[in-house]
Amino acid sequence: MKVQFNHFSGRRRKDGVVATMIFMALLGIMMILVAANVRTLVHLHATEKLIEQKQIQRMNAAQTNAVHTTTLSAK
Length: 75
Prior knowledge:
The mean pLDDT is about 85. This protein is an all-alpha fold. The protein has a domain at about 30-55. The chain has one helix and no strands. The protein is about 75% helix and about 0% strand.
């Protein structure tokens, strides 16, 4: 009984390894992009809070600088 070996089995294995490595590289790049986007969103949220605080302070300052007019009641 003679056993025949598939001549392409070694090449298929190499192709599978290359495909796996490319997939892992793409997955790594995607994870880096997700991490960068999360960091950007955190920074954006902090900036938004700072702007909101400054606007609240400016609005409160505008109220304290308002001129109050008093009317004298006639007796």
